[in-house]
């Protein structure tokens, strides 16, 4: 009986100290998403009444229809996808080559270069966007998707490179030396040996690159002025006219914009834990 009481007391303490705080945190974290979904499926008349803000009496998809048919949302989402995917692909390729060079090739000034990569990422973008705008303008790439992708690469490549340096350093040199003995060049060793072993770290770098590029606001706001060239975070401002806020369409945009990140994180979550810690020991 005493053993049973101790066991029950242990479970009670665990519920109070672990599960209840976790449940409260989960509610706190998911409530904005719930509010966004509920608001997006309300009609304009129901939004104006404000009698039951947390529930929906007559769910409707009119906000989504108006968003797609009466605004440039289809262009915004396409631009966001193109910019985020292209930035991710080129950032991972360039960063993999740069990180491997800094992790494996010994040359004068390697320490300075590796630290410069980190410092270049840490410089606030609010300081750099004016000179960057001048550069993009001189290249005649303002108000273009290509110019926006180049701007994103300036801060995503240093970010990915710094992440991948630790992962490539943690790969045992003996494995690469065996490949070299078998006749593999350095590039072939990177492609066939190092990258597969450091795959979790590359996945993490790609996911965070996509997330940051997907939600980037400052550079698209400065570089692109045409509504057809905007991305979703900046395009949202077009749904505000004076003091009139299209809350239904704004929330519908937010929900659609959130879905790719949720879909992206779910299947690769098992890689994230190993990818975030794999390069933490050596670096």
Could you explain how this protein is built, in words?
The chain is mostly helical and 283 residues long. It has two domains: 2-62, no CATH class; 71-277, MetI-like (MetI-like fold, Orthogonal Bundle). The chain contains 14 helices and two strands; from the N terminus they run ααααααααααααββαα. It has helices at residues 2-40, 44-49, 62-70, 73-104, 110-122, 125-138, 145-170, 173-181, 186-197, 199-214, 218-223, 232-235, 247-265, 269-277, and strands spanning 240-241, 244-245. Helix 4 (73-104) runs parallel beside helix 7 and helix 5 packs across helix 7. The longest helix is centred in the first third of the chain and has 39 residues, at 2-40. The chain is flat and about 75 Å long. The protein starts with a helix and ends in a 6-residue tail after the last helix. Mean pLDDT is 84; it is low at 279-283.
Show the helix and strand layout.
Elements: H1 2-40, H2 44-49, H3 62-70, H4 73-104, H5 110-122, H6 125-138, H7 145-170, H8 173-181, H9 186-197, H10 199-214, H11 218-223, H12 232-235, E1 240-241, E2 244-245, H13 247-265, H14 269-277
Antiparallel strand pairs: 1-2
Number of helices: 14
Major sheet summary line: 2 strands, antiparallel
CATH class of the largest domain: Mainly Alpha
**What is the total domain count?**
2
CATH superfamily of the largest domain: MetI-like
Write down the Rg: 24 Å
**Low-confidence segments, ≥5 residues, pLDDT <50?**
279-283
Total beta-strand segments: 2
CATH topology of the largest domain: MetI-like fold
Q: Overall pLDDT, averaged? A: 84
Strand arrangement, major sheet = 1-2
